[in-house]
Design goal:
- Helix content is 37%, strand content 17%.
- It has 472 residues and is α/β, with parallel strands linked by helices.
- The strands form 5 sheets. Strands 10-13-12-11-16-17 form a 6-stranded mixed beta sheet, with helices on both faces. It has a 5-stranded mixed beta sheet with strand order 5-4-3-6-7.
Amino acid sequence: MRVPVGVLALVALLLSALPAQAAGWGKEYVPNVPVVTQDGKTLNFYDDLIKDKIVVLSFIYASCKDICPLATARLAEAQEKLGDRVGRDIFFYSISIEPESDTPERLKQYADAFHAGPGWLFLTGLPEDIQAIRYKFGDRRPDLVDHRNDVVLGNGATGEWQRENALGDLDHFVGAIKAMHPQWRLQDVAGKSAPAARQPPNHTVHYETGYVMEGRQPGSAMFVKLCAGCHTIGRGDRVGPDLDGLTLRRSRAWITDFLMNPIKMRARQDPIALALAAKFPGVRMPYLQVHESDAADLISYIDAHSKEHQPRIALETLYALTTQDGSHLTPADLKDRPFAVAFGYTHCPDVCPTTLLEWANLIKAAGAQSGGFKLLFISVDPERDSPSALKALLSSFDAPLTALTGSAAEIAAAAQQFGAFYAKVQGADGAVSFDHTVKSYLVDHEAHVTGTIDPETPEPDQHRALARLLIQ
């Protein structure tokens, strides 16, 4: 699995420590300026929020499109783990660095999206006062997009402060918060006198259930780091929608596009993306610099842990059909390989030849990367489309195309796997034609239908769809 470059850069930034003088910071150092909570209440920053308290400070702004929602989601997870200690012994403060836009009302919406409970305040105020707080805690960059995204842990009673990475291991992060309390720190040390049994290195803990799974499943680490703060799989909506059964509701092609650039999807008025933004207005899916291969791993992980998986194509229905050479496909041809399927017939006057020509060009353009990729052209006219007739049709195309025919029942069984439609049409002059689905179905190496293309799909999108299929 490849971790996004942007995330790696942020981790390096987040590991930087507070300067040595952080130890002993007190009322002489921490600004006591007025700040306003998401509920519109005005408080003095040091006297009311810092003095004698264990605190977690995070600098965010509500319109942030990348790391702020991710970091805030991680605080939401920490809030759950800490339970009723938050608001009693520990206090979270998310401080807006864009106070001109982040009104209490806007921050209230943001806080509600992350289910902020008692003890977690979202703060705004006068720009010069917020700037004073930022400056004292080491965030001195003028651009919003370049602000620090680590968090600051502090104990107002002892004057101890440190930076911590909220995007790393969640248990470590929660442990670091607890360690700000001297008594908890001693209890933690005592509890470590008998080392816990370590899991073998090839085991992974399933985030949703806590069960130990054999092997390292692709996508598991990325899901925990990038997704689990805002989404569950089968435990209901959180900041964003429950992802259980996601591949039953959305095509894998759409999910991949959305994971890679949700902002672009909303900008081009994608109806599903806009509907999600309307349903979850508090925080929109951020741009996380996810690559195509990462998206494929995440999709596989979500599907594997959903209560109901996306169904796989029954390859046996394709093996039952007869090729243009009079033989049959075998598992060596399709199992663990991506391929595409189109339906048509040899007497088709326009769409079918166009589809075959487009596929010939697509596969040729893919070059060596196409490997053993196949387009399967399944005839819906078995009465006229003998293997020899199909072979004559394919002779016009210089590409690895395979044509298939069979009995009416065998073709119907194959079409049912894809939800493809076809119907015989008898013309007034006695001529026979077929209405049929003009889509080509894209099938990944796990036998899932990941999407479709058709003659109306723009050529660049066709090439992109094939390239995505080949790298999965």
